[in-house]
Amino acid sequence: MKYFLHRVGFLFLSMFAAVTLNFLLPRMMPGNPATVLFAKFQGRMTPQALHALEAEFGFNHKPLIDQYFSYLGGLVTGHWGLSFNYYPTPVTSVIASSLPWTIGLVGISTIISVFMGTIIGIYIAWRRKGILDSVLPTSLMFFQAMPTFWVALMLLYIFGFLLSWFPMSHAYSNSIVPGMSGSYLLSILYHAVLPGFTIFIGSLSGWMIGMRNNMINTLGEDYIVFAEAKGISPARLMFSYTARNAILPQITSFAIALGNVVSGSILVEMVFSYPGIGYQLVNAVTGEDYPLIQGTFLIIALSVLIANFIVDLLLSRLDPRVRREGAVA
Amino acid sequence: MKKTRRLALFAATATLAVGALSGCGQSATPTTTGSNGGSNSAVVNQPMVVVPSPYGTFQPNFSPFQGNANQGTDGLIYQPLFYFDNVSSNVYPFLGTNYSWSNGDKTLTVNLQQHAKWSDGKPFTSKDVVFTFNLFKKYPATDTNGVWNELTSVTANGKYQVIFQFKKADVPFAAFVLGSYIVPQHIWASLGNPSKVNVPNPVGTGPYVLGSFSPEVYTLKANPNYYGGEPDIRNLQYPAYTSNDSADLALAKGQIDWAGIFIPNIQNVYSSKSPNNKYWFPPDGDVVLYPNLTNPLLGNLAVRQAISLGINRQQIDQEGEYGFEAPASPTGLVLPNDNSWIDPSLTTSQLSYSYNPAKAIQILEKAGFKKNAQGIFESSSGQPLSFTLQVVTGWTDWDSDSELISQQLKQIGINVTVQEEQFGSYYSNLTGHNYQLTISWTNNTGPNPYYQYENMLATKGGWNIEQWSNPATTEALSNFEKTTNLAAQQQQIYKIEKVMVNSLPTIPLVYAATWNEYNDSNITGWPTAQNPYVNPAPFTGAADAVVLMHLHGR
After folding, report:
1. Which of B6, B216, B419, B435 to mutate to test the interface with A (most CBs of A within 10 A)?
2. Cα–Cα–Cα angle for A197, A201, A203, nearest 5°?
3. d(CA B341, CA A315)
4. DSSP B74-97
5. Residue B502 pLDDT
6. Which residues of chain A lie closer than 8 angstroms to B421, CB-CB?
7. What is the model's pTM?
């Protein structure tokens, strides 16, 4: 219980820091978002009109501390402001319309990648120095070493452009009306193949090699040798004795990966014109759309923090040592 | 990201800004809006795919009062009274049929289209026009053209006539008034502040109505009751693309029928893929090197002349702009669009730039500059000709133009340091006059050169970032505003051309191209260099409607 309270306290402290940084950072950027916005009116607006517009956009010259408190209040009540790029659409609805796509695409590809990577890692560690052990890590490392957007462009060019096996862009076909129909869901899956595979192949080797190395370390432990000597079945030895202990660092990395799901694979989304949050973030940054930048950063920061919090709790169940040490610290 | 940023920002309001009356005397002669006549066989039902620019995802917003509304809102759904085109110099009537000046060019009377209907079936009348202009007055944030700076009143005279009273004679300003998009009173009266609402279900008078919407694609369908006749292209589809790369591939593959995207290597990537992949990039402005004239060195004409002579514009076109943007005219005119406005008394050598580093050095020496130990010219008081050049980071073509200029000017003993800035700080530095040299755009090109000149050179011009203030220029502009006579207007423009050529208030580099790619395998009637009837880019508001009304199936 003490451990739990500690974690909750830490969660709130880091949330507070994230929220405050999120408020300060855009205000430290060079240039004024107001001027960017007014650029499109090509200097034809009257000062009164500019002032009226400024007021509507919420640019005011109140002291920073006042702005900070109204920002905090807005966060709690769900008033995250209006996006400048999509004015007057609220930031929350821009995020709501793009977040599910990213979570769906990146989340599912990450989970598959973790699962497959871990299983293969367990297997090749068990059969180390076998053919798979020498071929898989190096060949998959190749994909991890290449920049993701480059892999994405290659896949897009070969399978989308040259062979036309898969669609080149978007999350579903333009000719289908979104709705709970089979053809719509199939279309989503079909469109997710290339971007999903890019993310999958890009992270697979990390999970695999991580698990393999943990496994090999654990396999060298005395209790494994002892268990083997006592004649425990290989499958039980592999999963219950070795993998269960070797998987702990994987879970920590998984937490971080889950947190990163929301920040998405920005470049992959760009290449495949996938309507996710990553694209929105890039768009917001280039357009100096402060409310949207703040909104997306906040979502990203919160998801990383919350994912870490959950894994901290989970880890304490799996590994009692963590709980004790956490309580002492 | 190359130029798309610039286009997204500025093209969205191009229609608001485009203007000019091309000296159309007392009343505008309506050019046909391109009614389709009887060629029924040419109907195209298959959706025509339009990608004005990579926009990412869409929000359901079809309000003509917001620069970021989805494409098609301005021009295809909502219409202005007239559209003044900057490429063809044509004036296209939409909700207006003709207009005339009276009362010493202070009263503008406009007759309205009597057969126009809102897409919900209600008739369009002068009440809607008066209502729209009153909205601008009531909510200044929507008055993005500043029409109420110039107007005193807008009144209806019967159902189909509207009378605009101006504070003073300002003939060219009519383009901004007549180019404003008109909304229906019966819907907008209850919407409150128009700059604060999203409009998911637009009701307009234009040739198209909204078909379907999703964040990834929206469609427009032909308005069967359109007063100009139902367009042959019955369905338009606007898909979202997040980057130039993905849009370029789709374009090369023939998945897009009409686009306004920048493609660097267009022959290889696009034209060679199919004989039907066509493009036409007419100029719609200048790319200009702006000197800050309050800088004592740049305020010196000899320095500006040397800079201009020391810049190799051919190289900028070929290496910086992929050969798409030919060297500009020293007059600042956008040619060939403004051909009829060229001052006949200017000589050929005054009408085109020559690259002449030797002469540049000669001019500097004659003006008393001497080279220092580093090979950089210094003034007699020891100030070196060393400047910073601000440009937007990520606008890759301008970034490489700047590097070229820096190398070229080094050779004539002028040191230029390129400073890449985020758009926000670039823009506030320019408008705050906190720069020495910068590459920037010109605004408001229209069917006559007045608008661009006024914006760039008038003391209170919207983009007079160089801070030019010159009685001769001011007088010529104000004389232009007071007359509807073409010959008299031309005389004033000639004066400003001479100012540009002789005094170099700004240093034009190359023409700014407007991006426009189209596929003519199923559809004909596109504007081309041979038949330049309107600005062809798919992001120019009412011009899009003109193009679409000219298109037919094969």
Report:
1. B216
2. 120
3. 78
4. BTTTBEESEEE-TTT--EEESSEE
5. 95
6. 30-31
7. 0.82
Strand, coil or helix: what is B513? strand
Residue with tokens 């709980």: A323
Cα separation, A154 vs A193, in Å, equals: 14
| Facing residue for A169 by CB, picked from B212, B214, B250 | B250
The lowest-confidence range among B8-12, B222-226, B500-504, B543-547 is: B8-12
Cβ-based neighbours of B107, under 8 Å, separated by 6 or more: B101, B163, B164, B165, B166
Retrieve residue B302's tokens.
């000899």
The answer to whether the beta carbons of residues B309 and B322 sit under 8 Å apart is: no
Residue position matching structure tokens 């993905």: B246
CA B257 to CA A145: how far, in whole Å? 38
Token duo for residue B355: 């690259």
pLDDT digits (tens, 9 = 90+) for B323-377: 899 999 999 999 888 999 999 999 998 999 999 999 999 999 999 999 999 999 9
Q: At a CB cut-off of 8 Å and minimum separation 6, what does A57 contact?
A: A34, A37, A82, A84, A87
> Strand, coil or helix: what is B42?
helix
Q: Give me A237's structure tokens.
A: 């030895």
Q: Give me B279's structure tokens.
A: 């493009």
Residue A146 CA: distances (Å) to CA of A107, A139, A140, A203, A253:
21, 12, 10, 11, 21
Q: Is B403 exposed, middle or buried (0-12, 13-18, 19+ CB in 10 A)?
A: middle
Q: Nearest CA to CA, how far is B431 from chain A (Å)? A: 9
ipTM over 0.90: no
Instruction: Let me know: does A254 contact A260? Beta carbons within 8 Å.
Output: no
pLDDT digits (tens, 9 = 90+) for B227-259: 999 999 999 999 988 777 778 888 888 889 999
Task: Note the helical H segments in chain A.
Answer: 2-28, 33-39, 47-57, 64-77, 91-102, 108-126, 131-145, 148-155, 182-219, 222-229, 234-236, 244-246, 248-263, 266-271, 277-286, 290-318, 320-328
Beta strands in B454-514 (DSSP E): 507-513
CB count within 10 Å of CB A208 equals 27
A93 touches chain B (CB under 8 A): yes
pLDDT class for B38, splitting at 50, 70, 90? very low
Whether the CB-CB separation of A108 and A203 falls below 8 Å is answered with no
Amino acid present at A177 = V
Would you say B379 and B368 are in contact if contact means Cβ atoms under 8 Å apart? yes
Contact B254, B146 (CB under 8 A): no
Cα distances (angstroms) measured from residue B376 to each of B358, B365, B373, B386: 15, 12, 7, 8
Chain centroid to CA A271: how far?
17
Distance separating alpha carbons of residues B174 and B448, to the nearest angstrom:
13
**Chain A contact for B157 (CB, 8 A cutoff):** no
Cβ atoms of B519 and B254 closer than 8 Å: yes
CA atoms within 13 A on the CB side of B411: 15
Please give the DSSP secondary-structure letter assigned to residue B44.
Answer: B
Amino acid at B62: F
DSSP 8-class letter at A125: H
Note the Cα B100 to chain centre separation in Å: 25
- Element containing residue B165 per DSSP (H, E): strand B161-166
- The alpha-carbon gap from A48 to the nearest alpha carbon of chain B, in Å, equals 7
